[in-house]
Amino acid sequence: MNKPQKIRMATCSLTGCFGCHMSLLDIDERLFDLLERVEFDRTPFTDIKHCGPCDIGIVEGGVSNAENAHVLKEFRKNCKILVATGACAITGGVPAMRNNIHLRDCFQEIYLYEGGTEGNQIPNDPELPLPFDKVYPISEVVKVDYFLPGCPPSADAIWKFLNDLIEGREPSLDYEMIRYD
Which residues on neighbouring strands pair with residue 147, listed in sequence order? Predict the structure, then answer.
């Protein structure tokens, strides 16, 4: 008897706190059940940096610079289903609090006024990603198929959401499973 083919899944973190990935890890021993049905591609579990073709892609974090936008567009090309996970991916979250501050003022406050950097100058190196004037939700950059809200979503919400997707069901979460704390 042949084993059923595993779903290929990848994750990606942009500008955020990595809390959504931590919630994914918080599904604890259920990770073993997930691994029976899922093969991970790009994710912190595998340390693969570039995403190959996947069935499900999970993105946390907003888009705050040119590198985020590039990574997100490449990730989207490789994922049949893309899930925006958490407040940062869906709305820009806490990083988007800078959106009503001019980028120059933000950089001056960080690098020049509060202890700053050596030489008290704003870093300018071609290796640094070009910052955007604001933090964008990922849906303003690529097409998103599903939104999993929360800050971060609970492990139980992620577990239920992923199981619905893997089983081919429309994901559905009870109100109690959605949290913003």
Answer: 84
